[in-house]
């Protein structure tokens, strides 16, 4: 497949919708996400066994991040277009102030900042995301938020933080 050369960057409106999509997802802004995707949007993520299909499912997935991160910014560092697809390399950053929800579990907030690269291909229809393939540095997020058990002392530290958070009423960090 040939790539159309558009000077190294994507047209401003399409780049803006990609940034808005990523920002809404990381920030857990379900209302904004609902406006950014088509009814039949598909989210492909290689680390999960199933695709997320349809606006309602993607909005529900986005709600899982609500309250987890503050000061979220996403910057599309580089992008290129081929037909109706945009390939974008972006950096997301934020501050972990609330629990991270993963597969029915809640992980206690750490109060730490993260900055993580991600790469995606986004198919855009009528100014909305219709399909996306996203690969983010999940291990990088876990390491930066100090949630990676790398030995007995780290495992103990994480377990104690998790226990304190659960017993302390699961308060959001400021």
From TrEMBL:
Annotated GO biological process:
polyketide metabolic process
What the entry lists under InterPro entries is as follows:
Cyclase_SnoaL-like, NTF2-like_dom_sf
Question: What residue stretch is flagged as signal peptide?
Answer: none
Q: Which PANTHER family does the record associate with it?
A: ESTER CYCLASE, POLYKETIDE CYCLASE SNOAL-LIKE DOMAIN
Protein name, please? Ester cyclase
